[in-house]
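Incident review: delayed structure delivery

Summary: a single-chain prediction request sat in the queue longer than the usual turnaround. Root cause was a stuck worker, restarted by the on-call engineer. No data loss occurred. The affected request and its eventual output are reproduced below so the record is complete for anyone auditing the incident later.

Affected input:
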Amino acid sequence: MSSTNRTVVVTGIGATTPLGGDSASTWEGLLAGRSGVKPLEGERFAELPVQIAAFAAVDPGDVLPRPLARKLDRSAQFALIAAREAWADAGYTAPAGEDEAIAPERLGAVIASGIGGVTTLLDQYDVLKEKGVRRVSPHTVPMLMPNGPSANVGLEVNARAGVHTPVSACASGAEAIGYAIEMIRSGRADVVVAGGTEAAIHPLPIAAFANMMAMSKNNDEPTKASRPYDTARDGFVLGEGAGVVILESEEHAKARGAKIYCEALGQGLSADSHHIAQPEPSGRGIAAALQHLLDTTDLKPSEVVHLNAHATSTPQGDVAEIKALRQVFGDDLDHVAVSATKSMTGHLLGGAGGIETVATVLALHHRTAPPTINVDDLDPEVEADIVRGEPRPLPQGTIAAVNNSFGFGGHNVVLAFRTV
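Output delivered after worker restart:
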């Protein structure tokens, strides 16, 4: 295979989510069908119409040294924790250069966030108003920058092939991973640390999303609030955390004897050009992204046995996604086990594509599809095989899985992975 069309594989994974502080505990929570959604606590949330969210199971301040944590926005803290786990899981023991298995010039980092350091921006504005100019942190600008998480991960691993930050709302994390695949395929890098992160559980974003009628207001039953595909769904639940994968050229991975989780086949991209916040109801744009994936890889619909759906639990979005899948996959959709893991983690916005890629990789690795919880009354418009109740075994042999991510602005990103 030429240097401009190299096979890309996944060699490491890391996560910190509402279900656990690492990828193993997150996977365990997904298989158990456990919800990470809880009531909001504290006076600052008291007036909000939405009183629920999915906080990270392990606070990053309990993991990172205090001198480091105070210089990082919460989104960057999550990204660094997930990246460290993924880096170690891939078998690297030190930053590039110190670990001779990878040269800094051949290592990249692509970590996305949909909103960036929003809590830093809002909290430091409060400091400015209440305590004055001199009390504003000198670290504020590096902390609030959307590229802060990627920059800090790049510094951590000594990445010099390129450090990037795609920003495409809730598709950001998936777009980062797709961009990283292309960095390796094109020969720009041999290894890329890629994923998504978000930390936006703050009164202002919650109030804004709530006033858009985008969030669930099922405050009385937090663990049942995120219910993709159910007829009673009424919006998403905000979550936080990060998911990161180590992508590597197959040649490089095999040369150093790395374990390989699966092949990262590629990405499909499109834009709805329909509305700044509403999905195109027929699924036209999503279908275009899926078709782009099929046209630019050797993936066949008959190979796909699992899908980690975007499925945020909004009335329009969930149905549009299934319509698009049916348009492109046709009858092959009938043998695809569909999981909607946001039913458990909530919606991590720009971090969603990261943690859902980790879940997709683990589903292939363990040949098990996680369940979707809270689907008590399946919407009759959802003509797909939704995994409910219990995890489902996936077939033996060579199989593939797809991870969907869509964002405000009409951004559509689909990623595909296959067993090796």
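Verification: Residues 217 and 258 are 46 Å apart (CA to CA).
Action items: add queue-age alerting; document worker restart procedure.
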